[in-house]
């Protein structure tokens, strides 16, 4: 007789099989492994063992996370000849230990260098709200899989906006924790000085549960964050949050982006206005550091096998490898200065609000967006409002607002370092009053 968990996982695999041909979220589906894990969970249930936090919950991971027995592609072709991973990435292992069942690996921009998940090797991931539109990137497969109801949880990474951009365009909740808060061990790097990992989910409680389960000390973590495990607590009475809308640089988006921020601000009890200094330079510095660190990481392979890279990735990595060292030094100096300026804002405010993307999901056949009434390439500019924040390592919960237009758009709830719990609590408040969250799609 088929147990309840096995039946649930079989239904998830069937749904993926029926819909992923259109959406192209998955690069690997682990059917046999997932069903075996489901049968093991059914056996634990039958034996009356204590329930685990994620018992029987299916999840999937961006294909830059190591999965035991699977070659880690990081969206590339050039890594396909590498041996399979010997162990899971730390955060994958944590989710499995909590009872989660891994069903597959998800599409992404090659080496996480992009905002659209249009991959020359694995194809483009399509937005579940409109398959003719972008899902965002680089964690587009992760966000789209959750938005379409193929899995309730997925893992992504965020260097310049790669969780927040697809969460915004696909209409799901996403968490980019404080830099170093979750272990990056076993996640293929892009820009080590500001790579982050984090979850996607359709509800705030699910997002927080995944985040809580992924916490933990890891001796192999390259950042070696020593913060204690801090489970998220909901429902506690607290004073009204001090809220500020980020203005200036962050006003350049579409009317829908500005309206979404205004709706969130109103629901949180009103907001002041704050113009962060030199944010245009922060974005430029983030670009310079990304190009330089990424180029240095890939230069040995680029020197020998450049034509095996996605052309859109190859040219930027080569340019980054040639960037003068003086530019990188100046960008890092500016980064330290900018971080100090932004942190002073939290002396007056608890949470800063900004659009997650300048607009709703662009169409593939018109890959431009309007900034200051001028068309610019979407692929390079969808992270316009995300880059200056991850550049300095602040935690962000992206909440989807779905009533301001036909498509969703996200708002960033930015808090001081290690205040993820506050961002999640405010996100749940927005979800409870109907400001944040999108209705289930027909894929479910």
TrEMBL record:
**Which GO terms of the molecular function aspect are on file?**
hydrolase activity
For region Disordered, the annotated ranges are 120-140
Which Pfam families does UniProt cross-reference here?
Amidase (PF01425)
Q: Which UniProt keywords apply?
A: Hydrolase
In terms of InterPro entries, this protein maps to: Amidase, Amidase_dom, AS_sf, Carboxybiuret_hydro_AtzE
**In what residue span(s) does the Amidase domain sit?**
9-421
Species source reads Lichenicoccus roseus
Source domain of life is: Bacteria
Q: What is the lineage of its organism?
A: Bacteria, Pseudomonadati, Pseudomonadota, Alphaproteobacteria, Acetobacterales
Name of the protein in its database record: AtzE family amidohydrolase
């Amino acid at each position: 007789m088929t147990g309840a968990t096995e039946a649930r996982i079989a239904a998830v695999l069937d749904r993926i099989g029926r819909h992923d041909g259109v959406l192209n979220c998955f690069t690997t589906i682990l059917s046999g492994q997932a069903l075996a894990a489901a049968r093991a969970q059914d056996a634990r249930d039958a034996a009356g063992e204590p329930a685990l936090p994620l018992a029987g919950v299916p999840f999937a991971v961006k294909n830059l996370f190591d999965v035991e027995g699977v070659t880690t592609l990081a969206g590339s072709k050039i890594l396909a000849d590498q041996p399979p991973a010997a162990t899971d990435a730390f955060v994958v292992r944590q989710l499995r230990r909590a009872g989660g069942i891994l069903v597959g690996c998800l599409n992404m921009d090659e080496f996480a260098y992009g905002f659209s998940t249009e991959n020359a090797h694995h194809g483009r991931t399509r937005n579940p709200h409109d398959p003719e539109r972008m899902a965002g990137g680089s964690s587009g497969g992760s966000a789209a899989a959750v938005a379409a109801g193929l899995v309730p949880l997925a893992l992504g990474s965020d260097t310049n906006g790669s969780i927040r951009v697809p969460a915004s365009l696909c209409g799901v909740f996403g968490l980019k924790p404080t830099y170093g808060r979750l272990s990056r061990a076993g996640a293929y790097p892009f820009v080590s000085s500001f790579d982050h990992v984090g979850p996607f989910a359709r509800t705030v409680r699910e997002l927080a549960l995944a985040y809580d389960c992924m916490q933990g000390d890891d001796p192999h973590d390259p950042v070696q964050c020593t913060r204690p495990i801090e489970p998220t607590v909901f429902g506690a009475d607290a004073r009204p949050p001090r809220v500020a809308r980020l203005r200036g640089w962050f006003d350049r988006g579409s009317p829908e982006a500005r309206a979404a921020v205004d709706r969130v601000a109103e629901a949180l009890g009103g907001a002041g206005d704050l113009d962060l200094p030199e944010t245009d330079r922060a974005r430029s510095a983030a670009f310079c550091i990304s190009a330089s660190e990424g180029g240095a990481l890939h230069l040995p392979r680029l020197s020998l096998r450049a034509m095996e890279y996605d052309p859109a990735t190859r040219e930027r990595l080569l340019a980054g490898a040639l960037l003068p060292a003086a530019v990188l030094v100046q960008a890092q100096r500016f980064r330290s200065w900018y971080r100090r300026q932004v942190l002073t804002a939290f002396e007056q405010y608890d949470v800063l609000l900004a659009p997650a993307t300048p607009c709703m999901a662009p169409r593939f056949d018109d890959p431009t967006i309007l900034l200051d009434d001028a068309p610019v390439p979407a692929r390079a500019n969808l992270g316009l409002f995300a880059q200056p924040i991850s550049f300095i390592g602040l935690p962000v919960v992206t909440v989807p607002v779905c009533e301001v237009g036909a498509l969703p758009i996200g708002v960033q709830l930015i808090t001081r370092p290690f205040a993820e719990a506050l961002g999640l609590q405010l996100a749940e408040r927005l979800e409870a009053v109907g400001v944040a969250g999108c209705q289930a799609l027909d894929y479910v």
